[in-house]
Design a protein that fits this description.
Blueprint (H helix, E strand, L loop, with lengths): L2 H61 L4 H97 L1
């Protein structure tokens, strides 16, 4: 195996490796995107639940005669609902950050893959140019040898023609 073939093998290996990294990061990106979507839906569901529950609690207070501790209990329940909503918001923010990070990693992996592919393609183009150049040189040598042989043959025929003449 020549050095050229070894270099080509290295270039192809690097391309395959960067392609595998790109596929891996694409999968991570899809997972992060799905998690962000799931967290967004969970937050929206929690916000709707908290809004409905808060309305129900206050309607219940307004529908009857209440004591101060009933009002306090409702306020505590509303605070608890708000805390759950904030937790969902924080989880969404975390999922959004993870999604952005996964996107950046995918973009980096894609750039590395394109770079490796370009390097391999450029190397292959250089190999093709070199092969064409070698072929042209071989054809020139062959033509030169044929011309030389033809010239030698003519000289010989001329020489033999002079001997007989």
């Amino acid at each position: 195996m020549s050095i050229i073939d070894q270099l080509h093998g290295i270039k192809a290996f690097r391309e395959k490796k960067s392609e595998a990294e790109m596929v891996k990061s694409r999968l991570s990106l899809a997972r992060a995107r799905a998690e962000e979507s799931r967290r967004r839906q969970a937050l929206e569901a929690q916000q709707a639940h908290a809004r409905d529950e808060e309305l129900r609690l206050y309607r219940d207070l307004c529908a009857r005669l209440v004591r101060p501790r009933d009002i306090t209990r409702v306020q505590e329940d509303v605070i608890a609902l708000q805390a759950v909503t904030r937790e969902h918001q924080q989880q969404l923010v975390g999922a959004e950050k993870a999604h952005l990070q996964a996107r950046d990693m995918f973009d980096d992996a894609f750039r590395h893959y394109r770079h490796a592919t370009n390097a391999r393609e450029k190397f292959e183009e250089l190999m093709r140019r070199e092969a064409r150049q070698l072929l042209r040189e071989a054809e020139r040598r062959e033509e030169s040898e044929l011309e030389e042989m033809s010239g030698n043959l003519r000289d010989r025929l001329d020489f033999e023609g002079q001997d007989h003449g």
